[in-house]
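Backbones bend. Shown next:

***
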Amino acid sequence: MTAAIKTSGLCKNYGPTRAVIELDLVVEPGQVFAFLGPNGAGKTTTIRMLLALQRPSSGRAAVLGLDSGKDSVEIHRRIGYLPGELTLYPRMTGQQHIGWHARARGLRDLSLAAALAERFNAVLDRPTRELSKGNRQKIGLVLAFMSRPELLVLDEPTSGLDPLMRSEFARLAREVVAEGATVFWSSHELDEVQRLADRVAIIKQGRLLTTETVEGLRESAPQTVHARFTRPVAASLFAGIDGVSVTSCDGCAIQLQVTGAIGPLLRVIAGHDPVDFTCRHAGLDELFLAYYREPAAPESSHAR
């Protein structure tokens, strides 16, 4: 099947600043794909290059099998887009925005737009300059989804929404994917990502660090071990075990992180009179934050 999004060696430079560096990314159709990274990582720049809102310095990008530069008009016809900094005409109402959007796309049936507006409890009868950020964001979601696009490109789509509306967005995203659409979604909300995404890409300082399924990330997450003993123990007892690092040691209690086989660690613990022991996999939020903290690799970014 044709990839929903595919980039090859995609780069964007602003003078000496390298915002996106040799980005190779493939987003298969029919999934929710989360594009994560700290502020300034290159997420929005990547999205703007995909949609030909900015020219890449080098490399290529394809959206729905079309060249993002040469075929941008056709791409825009087939996608729904919600920018990270949504700008609406301040004197126009939400209903006027929907009407203008429908005419631009040649839509005659506005029943889906009306259903989405009701679903998000969007305020459509007041000028958008009078609305809160959350209410403007609801209008942006209606505009993005109302044409039943093949691909939704959403940059921080739940920004400004309350928890109820965030849950409604998650349900809507799963519904459109079940119907065959693809959702490419930039977010800072790690809890949402854990619940909603099929695959995750993490970008930092313009470089792709990893791409993996959410389940794959869970399986690869390190284990955190807490052990308490009858007498004080030395961290050096555990520091030499392959795949084990000591994160804290306080008298009779020790905390360790395990990335390999746990058997050698258990044998050492058992030999020193443990009185308490717990083991858990790191949460995805801990794993994401660990990726955010680690330095970006110097080589090109490749992921599928």
